[in-house]
Amino acid sequence: MRKSLGNLSWVCAVAMTAWSSQAVAQNAKELHIMDSGGEYADSLDKCVNAPLLKSDGIKVIQETPGGYAKMAAQAKSGVITNTVTDGPTGDMYRQAAEGLLEPIDWAKLNPEPMFEEAKNPNGFGASYYSTIMAWRSDAKPPQNFVDFFDTEKFPGKRALPDYPEFVLAFAAMGDGMTPEEVSKGLDLDRAFKTLERVKNDVIWWQSGAQPAQLLKDNEVQYAIAWSGRVLGQEGVSSTYNQGMLDISWWTVAKGITDDQRDMLYKWLRLQTNAEVQKCLLDFLPYPGPSPELEKIVTPEVLKTFPTSAENKKVQWLMPGQWWYDNAKEVEKRWNDFKLLQ
Amino acid sequence: MTEETRDQKDAMTPATLALEAASGRPQAPARRQGRVRWDLVLLIAPLLILVVAIFDVPLLNTLYWSTVDDAGNPTTEHFREFAESSAYMRIIWRTLVIALEVTAITAVAGYALAYWITKLGRRLRMVMLGLVVTTFWVSILVRTYAWIVILGNAGLVNRTLMDLGLISKPVQFLYNELGILIGMVNVLLPFLVLPLYAAMVRLDERLLQVAETLGASRLRIFWQVFFPLTVPTLAASCILIFILSLGFYITPAVLGGGKVPLVANMMDLLINRFARWEIAAVVSVVLMAVTLSLYAIYQWIRERSA
């Protein structure tokens, strides 16, 4: 009995060694990234990661979700495994200010043609998305965010993002601030005044797919959601009117090795290709930054872009700098509001 | 864009916990005197090292984080911040209250269920126990979402009630405290039913027969003989359930509609969103202290009454 136990442990030891050396061998060609997951992860796998594995033998490993806190934790631990994360503009400013980011060497990256505003020194503009209002098609349609937050004239429950940067500006508009005003920065008092007023009629969502589902299940009648998640959903209406346009950025972790950077830049460069961006659109309607993209999609698809001329003019841009400047204050007030409700 | 639903953070502690509670007080193993069984020590060592390295050391690390600043110097700053905001203590309090409510509901429902199962015929008994055990096999995430299908506004229950004309608009089961209670009780019920059932069937039936011969009514037999004999197991299971409820994450996140934050959800916010590990560490330390004190009080009462 004891002998067989000994033999077994030998087998285990040998297997472990073999397994770990194999893992090391694979590491050489593995690129670790963080992103928001779900359908977005699926789209990257099909349109970017699979072709890259074929052409360059680089295997991309995704971890979800990413974001500021994960980058901060990784920097604190000193082991940089994940080379890049996605996130909104405010997140990029915050990471940059805290020294978590490596500036992008645009000359080295050498992208295919892309919009200038998507080439930030600290971030690679991956796609345009918008945060907009949506409602059940059988509910009374709101015209603007004053209507949206008027629970008397527009009775029903609201599904709101459980993220301050995606809800506070709209709440401030619910108290009468104009899109022009909030695109420069918002009055937090007015924002929280609105939220205090409606909080009993709110279901907070964390995952992008939730609002559409809550609307369909008739759990809520109105929602603030990311454009790609509600457009084209049956029984759900939405408008870009007063929507918040933003770019989703890839931000690169400071401290990555040269090998990691080489792989990462290959991966990013592939994403500047218009055909690749068209492929990503099959999963989620968030257009990439290639000027060529509009020319190769059908007019119906173009109409859904948050960036199409018609949609762009009724929206406003998220003030990333303001969110960075006020991060501490927002965090404290949001925390108190959410935890004390 | 936090997209993916969370991991199963409050996935079940193994069923063994429940079984352990079932056996009541652990019996000291018969042991040969004066000899250390080195082979046994060797066999246990890997597990011991694993527990120390993976559980105990990080726990101490948490304590360390709560007491040092960025440069690694000792500080009470984090505890002061914790004390100055009313939010943290209030959420810990709320979590304790909900854990208590869950424990009470589970105890009443579970006791009745276990008692009823012991009264069934052999075959039906196996079926019922099987049904209780099956819930262990289904992922907690799936079970939590299943409640939306059953109890949502367009769910089975509400639609049936409305079709029958009993209600005119849907009953709000979910996205409030009620939703959390339903979800948590569902997950925790087996942890109470299995040990209680085991204790009930092991009970010496002759005691009940004696009471009956002496002319006690059925109600009296139950309250004066049967129930007291099951109290130790009931109490042990309740403590287990109470402690498990303190760490629930998915159920409040999904069935509470983000409106009833509990400790685990606050931790998620602090760690994954705000990167405030120090404060999260303070919250853990305080929660741990509160839990251990409660456990100490429980032990003290038990020893005094024994």
UniProtKB/TrEMBL annotation, chain A:
The record, for Gene3D superfamilies, names:
Periplasmic binding protein-like II
In terms of Pfam families, this protein maps to:
SBP_bac_8
Q: Which InterPro entries match?
A: SBP (IPR006059)
Question: What's the protein called, per UniProt?
Answer: Extracellular solute-binding protein
Annotated keywords: Periplasm, Signal
Report the leader peptide range: 1-25
TrEMBL record, chain B:
The subcellular localization recorded is: Cell membrane
Sorted alphabetically, which Pfam families does this protein's record hold?
BPD_transp_1 (PF00528)
Keyword hit for Ribonucleoprotein: no
Q: Give the PROSITE patterns listed for this entry.
A: ABC_TM1
Q: Which GO terms describe its biological process?
A: transmembrane transport
Q: What keyword terms does UniProt attach to this protein?
A: Cell membrane, Membrane, Transmembrane, Transmembrane helix, Transport
Stretch forming the signal peptide: none
Q: What is its main location?
A: membrane
Q: Which residues cross the membrane?
A: 40-60, 91-114, 126-150, 178-200, 221-254, 274-298
Topology in membrane? Multi-pass membrane protein
GO cellular component terms, semicolon-separated = plasma membrane
Task: Provide the ABC transmembrane type-1 domain boundaries.
Answer: 92-298
Q: Return the similarity comment.
A: Belongs to the binding-protein-dependent transport system permease family. CysTW subfamily.
Q: Which protein are we looking at?
A: ABC transporter permease
Instruction: Give the organism, scientific name.
Output: Mesorhizobium denitrificans
